[in-house]
Design brief:
- The complex is a heterodimer of chains A (293) and B (311).
- By secondary structure, chain A is of the alpha/beta class.
- Chain A contains 10 helices and 7 strands.
- Chain A has a 5-stranded parallel sheet, with helices on both faces. Chain A has a two-stranded antiparallel ribbon with strand order 1-7.
- In chain A, α6 links the parallel β3 and β4.
- The longest helix of chain A is centred in the N-terminal third of the chain and has 25 residues.
- The mean pLDDT of chain A is 96.
- With 311 residues, chain B is of the alpha/beta class.
- In chain B, β6, α8 and β7 form a beta-alpha-beta unit.
- Chain B folds into 2 domains: 166 residues, Rossmann fold (3-Layer(aba) Sandwich), CATH 3.40.50.970; 126 residues, 3-Layer(aba) Sandwich (Rossmann fold).
- Chain B is 42% helix and 22% strand.
- Classes of the chains: A alpha/beta (293), B alpha/beta (311).
- At the A-B interface, α5 and α6 of A face α4 and α6 of B.
- The complex binds thiamine diphosphate.
- The site of thiamine diphosphate has 19 residues of chain A, from α2.
């Protein structure tokens, strides 16, 4: 078990490490989708940095004991981003790297949508949007019933929902519930990548001021650039210090972040993606790194 | 034997179990007064959760609690437990391999004055389509207590169909019940009556007496669990007489009668079947329970008539 999680902001060395983890997650995810030839690349790419910050800074867990009773728990409510989660679990040491090429193939342990029965390290089965978030609220309550760890730290539940997913009524049922029960061990993220399946969230179902809605429901809302690791780390630290209410971190993200051909396009939701596309992506990443120096 | 209020038995059993097992918790959706779980809330306030009028979240939260090792009993009217929160119960609880007992109260015509909007006549059909789900409808206070204990001891999900009002005790205290084991209430050579739940078991027993007065001897089974179902008992007694009447406080599509028809066909039992239940093309209506039971032809005289039509 990770004995403790940081209480101070990430320094240069930690940020460099996080950046390399994020890169590995992004590439692992794209490799798994390329091995299949199609997948949910858009919504997987937009959560990569959040997953890196969670798995490599803030989640207390033990890859050697996926069901460790006093671990933090994590729910990927937008379950179709499973491939990004699997790449994070590989990077963290829960899964063997070779598994990535089995994505969505018959009999695999890595199905399109996250599945707690099939994949070590996955805490909740998701795929029917809205449900995972509500289960995450139940998990936060259950963890609170268990009480803090012997060292006094809270056992927390983290969750990620989508901005399109936020159309679901069940999200708002769980929002009211979590604030009513003052679940301050519940920290959630909205991956605000501005797209859902049928187009931009503004054109399909405009939810207007999301952060304002969460505040109105009794949550603390924090807005942050979802691809800026330092800002993300700072937001999670801030969220961990909040008492008496759950926290929603609204991530400003780019759908299909890191894939130039798809960035910010609705078509990236579930798209063909083959070896040649992967190569182009890797080249683009190299070029970007070179210009950054 | 004495009548006891079923919901009081439900609550008391949970209070008793809660004392021994700190994992037991109760989740309500603004119907705790109806379900009668106040005593549990009083005994273990930290394990009692009310989610408000939000059935999707009721089942979601219960599933999440189960993911942390708790054993939640989530309750609402059976119409909402099934029709409104079906996807949640199917995926978040059952598909996810968790341990949630979903209690559907006021099944079928027992919804009475709440009327057609509240009358669950399809919950069994829906629940029967969930792989591996145990479906239990106890017939009396004793079998209800057993059902709650079985659900609490189980590692999987259970749908408990609960008639809240008073029901007479049919079994001595402490009688042993098992999933998939029907109780033989009466044995007769001429036909088999299979009944499910307090209302229908009691009507089936009365119907057997009416038939006896006319010289027809019926075997009566109290099925207790619809899934798993006591295939062996159904095959045995159906084969013996070749005549079967199913009795369910539910629409005839997809529930008990359908389950029996499947068994008879699959096992090659030569038997004629009459399904007593609400008609395939009927929605629920408002009225007293007695009026509805007669209106939808669920009561003893109708069961007896259905039985006679087999001869
Ligand atoms: C209940 C439900 N309805 C519909 C779908 C099909 N679906 C999958 S993803 C998606 C759009 C989700 O949009 P968003 O949450 O913004 O996801 P992202 O853009 O982050 O991938 C839809 C409608 C589903 N999985 N679940």
């Amino acid at each position: 078990m990770t004995r403790s999680v940081p209480t101070a902001a990430a320094g240069q060395a930690e940020l460099k490490e996080l950046a390399s983890r994020a890169k590995a997650i992004r590439i692992g995810c794209l490799e798994s989708i390329a091995a299949l030839g199609i997948g949910h690349i858009g919504g997987s790419m937009s959560v990569v940095e959040a997953l890196a910050a969670l798995y490599f800074r803030h989640l207390r867990l033990d890859p050697a004991d996926a069901k460790a009773p006093d671990r933090d728990m994590f729910v990927l409510s937008k379950g179709h981003a499973g491939p990004a989660l699997y790449a994070a679990l590989v990077e963290k040491g829960y899964l063997k790297r070779e598994l990535l090429s089995t994505l969505n193939k018959g009999g695999t342990h890595l199905p399109s949508h996250a599945d707690r029965k099939l994949t070590p390290g996955v805490d909740m089965s998701t795929g029917s949007l809205g449900q995972g978030f509500s289960a995450a609220a139940g998990i936060a309550l259950g963890l609170r019933m268990e009480g803090p760890r012997p060292d006094g730290s809270l056992r927390r539940c983290y969750a990620i929902i989508g901005d399109g997913e936020s159309d679901e009524g069940q999200v708002w049922e769980a929002a009211a519930f979590s604030a009513h029960y003052k679940l301050d061990n519940f920290i959630a993220f909205t991956d605000c990548n501005k797209f859902q399946i049928d187009g931009s969230t503004d054109s399909v179902m405009g939810l207007r001021d999301l952060a304002g809605k969460w505040e109105a429901f009794g949550w603390k809302a924090i807005k942050v650039d979802g691809h800026d690791l330092a800002a993300l780390d700072g937001a999670i630290l801030e969220a961990r210090a909040v008492q008496g209410k759950p926290v929603m971190i609204v991530l400003d993200t780019v759908k299909a972040k890191g894939i130039p051909a798809f960035e910010g396009k609705a078509e990236s939701h579930n798209a063909a993606f083959v070896a040649a596309d992967l190569e182009a992506c890797l080249k683009a990443m190299e070029a970007e790194e070179a210009t950054r120096g | 034997m004495a009548d006891r209020e079923m919901r009081a038995v439900y609550a008391q059993t949970l209070v008793d179990l809660g004392a021994l097992d700190p994992r037991i918790c109760v989740v309500e959706a603004d119907l705790a007064r109806a379900t009668g779980t106040g005593p549990f809330a009083k005994a273990y306030p930290e394990r009692f959760v009310n989610v408000g009028v939000a059935e999707a979240n009721l089942v979601g939260v219960a599933s999440g609690l189960s993911a942390t090792g708790k054993k939640p009993f989530a309750a609402t009217f059976a119409c909402f437990a099934s029709r409104r929160a079906y996807d949640q119960f199917f995926l978040s609880a059952n598909y996810a391999g968790l341990n949630v007992t979903l209690v559907g109260t006021d099944p079928g015509v027992t919804a009475a004055f709440n009327g057609g909007t509240h009358m669950p006549l399809e919950d069994l059909a829906l629940m029967r389509a969930v792989p591996g789900l145990a479906i239990v409808e106890p017939s009396d206070p004793v079998s209800l207590e057993a059902a709650v204990r079985i659900a609490a001891a189980s590692d999987g999900c259970t749908y408990l169909r609960l008639q809240r009002k008073s029901a007479p005790e049919l079994y001595p205290a402490g009688e042993h019940f098992e999933l998939g084991k029907a109780k033989l209430l009466r044995q007769g050579k001429d036909l088999l009556i299979v009944a499910l739940g307090a209302l229908m078991v009691s009507e089936a027993k009365k119907a057997a007496e009416l038939l006896a007065a006319d010289g027809l001897e019926a075997t009566v089974l109290d099925l207790f669990s619809l899934a798993p179902i006591d295939r062996a008992a159904i095959v045995k007694y159906a084969s013996a007489s070749g005549r079967v009447v199913s009795c369910e406080n539910h629409r005839v599509t997809g529930g008990l009668g359908s389950a029996i028809a499947e068994i008879l066909a699959e096992e090659g039992v030569r038997a004629k079947l009459r399904r007593v239940g609400v008609g395939a093309d009927q929605f629920g209506e408002v009225g007293t329970q007695d009026w509805l039971a007669d209106h939808f032809k669920l009561s003893a005289p109708h069961i007896a008539a259905a039985a006679k039509s087999l001869f």
